[in-house]
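Exercise 4. Each item below gives a protein and its sequence. For each, produce the structure-token representation.

Item: Elongation factor P-like protein (Rubripirellula lacrimiformis).
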Amino acid sequence: MLAKEVKTGTVVVHEGNPVVIQGISVHSPSARGAATLYKFRARNVLTRNKVDITMKGTDAMDEADFSRRDVQMMYTDATHLHLMDKEDYQQYELALEDAEEELPYMTEGLEGIRALIYNDACVGLDLPASVELTITQCDPGVKGNSATSRNKPATMETGLVVQVPEYIKEGERLKIDTRTGQFLSRA
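Answer:
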């Protein structure tokens, strides 16, 4: 695959390791005959380290032997998160430290989870863009403070703390963005 054909979310091999492309910037040359440079911000799938890659548009990159599988969360134990493939019922496990960014958004029965499979092992998770969570603890709003929009912290059922508008009450279900961790709307 040529560098100019790579899109965000593509998994490629860089220096022998699979990396997920997270951002792309294109730098056009100012001189005649110079090549357009593609700068990629990527994350190593195995070590979770960020990697910066700079290539010419005609340079080639190899696609990784990588797949995304729809999975369902079964349970967590002290060290691992256990998942089941929805198609062939194969079970995967992922170390909790490898999923610590995703865990605050995961509840039992969450739809749309995709496991990142590399060499028949789960190395990461893709969550849906937003999830619905219930507020378990939230301070009540103060009457008369509605002239300006202010936020307050709310603790969700998974332990995630989100800034919500003052009119939101304990027990409500909210849509939360999994990429930024911000309140989107009531569910």
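Check: The CA atoms of residues 30 and 36 lie 9 Å apart.
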